[in-house]
């Protein structure tokens, strides 16, 4: 095991955990060379089980032989930086969840055709920029039987540290990739359902929706909602029936309700 005691916050090799921004980690032009940060032993285990490659570990001293002992054994000869809780908080700028961070290598984005090959229920996330919402949507997608997640280019990165943590590692369990427009789903035999309030909206519990063999649900931001163009191009416009005059839910909550109702 390559365990390295941190002697300085400026120590070489720690940049991935301290000074590199999310954009720098991502390396948009060459994503296969980029990195992301997985936080907490549980999330790291899910990533390792799903075949993601670790490059460095940052671990509170007591967890080396404690909560992260099995992870330390699994990651081979990669650098394992360690120090006390206060020192690691100074380094990262936040208190580590469960005292462990793992830098991992990104993978090339899969082709849309590969992601959709055997899928029947998918979600398209359009222009959602809140990392907590993205993580929560992925967690619901994994738990409630969504076969794939497609994200428009103006949606935030699912491998953002906070999104990964909120998802509890579900971003490693559900196939996902980027998409330019939900309209593309028609080319793969999907009907599309835009979640939006309009005069033409049908109820989420309409039997016609569940009867669709291949259905893509399109979710937008809870503020502005979906663009009119997206709604117009969709096969269905769908609303969730609600009481007490409430007109909308947070997008993550709406996604969970929708996934449950339309499961196959």
Keyphrases for this structure?
264 residues, 7-stranded parallel sheet, 10 helices, elongated, alpha/beta
Low-pLDDT parts are: none
The radius of gyration over CA amounts to 20 Å
Mean pLDDT: 91
Largest sheet: 7 strands, parallel
Helical content (DSSP H or I, runs of 4+)? 25-40%
Identify the overall geometry. elongated
Tally of helical runs: 10
How do the strands line up in the largest sheet?
8-7-6-11-9-12-10
Output the structural class: alpha/beta
Q: Write the H/E string, N to C.
A: EHEHEHEHEHEHEHEEEHEHEH
Q: What percentage of amino acids are in beta strands?
A: 15-25%
**Strand element count:** 12
End-to-end C-alpha gap? 46 Å
Report on the structure:
The structure is a single chain. The chain has 264 residues and is α/β, with parallel strands linked by helices. The chain has helices at residues 22-26, 41-49, 69-74, 85-92, 112-116, 131-143, 161-166, 207-211, 228-233, 251-261; strands spanning 2-5, 35-39, 54-60, 79-83, 100-105, 121-125, 148-152, 176-179, 191-195, 202-203, 215-219, 236-239. Strand 7, helix 7 (161-166) and strand 8 form a beta-alpha-beta unit. The strands form 2 sheets. A 7-stranded parallel sheet has the order 8-7-6-11-9-12-10. It is elongated, with a radius of gyration of 20 Å. Helix 6 (131-143) runs parallel beside helix 10. The chain has 10 helices and 12 strands.
In short:
This protein is an alpha/beta fold. Helices cover 28% and strands 22% of the residues. The chain is elongated, with a radius of gyration of 20 Å.
């Amino acid at each position: 095991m390559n365990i390295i005691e941190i002697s300085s916050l400026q120590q070489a090799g720690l940049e991935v955990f301290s000074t590199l921004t999310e954009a720098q980690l991502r390396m948009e032009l060459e994503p296969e060379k980029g990195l992301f940060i997985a936080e907490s032993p549980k999330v790291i285990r899910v990533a390792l089980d799903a075949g993601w490659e670790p490059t460095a570990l940052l671990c509170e001293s007591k967890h080396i032989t404690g909560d992260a002992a099995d992870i330390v054994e699994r990651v081979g000869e990669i650098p394992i930086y360690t120090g006390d809780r206060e020192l690691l908080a100074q380094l990262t700028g936040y208190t580590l969840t469960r005292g462990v961070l793992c830098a991992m290598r990104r993978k090339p984005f899969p082709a849309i055709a590969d992601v959709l090959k055997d899928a029947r229920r998918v979600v398209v996330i359009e222009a959602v920029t809140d990392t907590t919402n993205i993580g929560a949507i992925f967690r619901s997608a994994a738990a409630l039987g969504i076969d794939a997640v497609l994200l428009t280019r103006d949606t935030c990165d699912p491998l953002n540290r906070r999104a990964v943590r909120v998802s509890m590692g579900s971003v490693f369990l559900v196939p996902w990739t980027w998409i330019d427009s939900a309209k593309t789903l028609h080319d793969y035999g999907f009907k599309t359902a835009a979640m939006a309030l309009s005069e033409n909206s049908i109820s989420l519990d309409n039997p016609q929706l569940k009867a669709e063999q291949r259905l893509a649900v399109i979710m937008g931001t809870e503020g502005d909602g979906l663009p009119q163009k997206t709604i117009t191009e969709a096969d269905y416009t769908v609303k969730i029936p609600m009481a007490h005059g409430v007109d909308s839910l947070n997008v993550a909550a709406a996604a969970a309700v929708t996934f449950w109702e339309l499961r196959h």
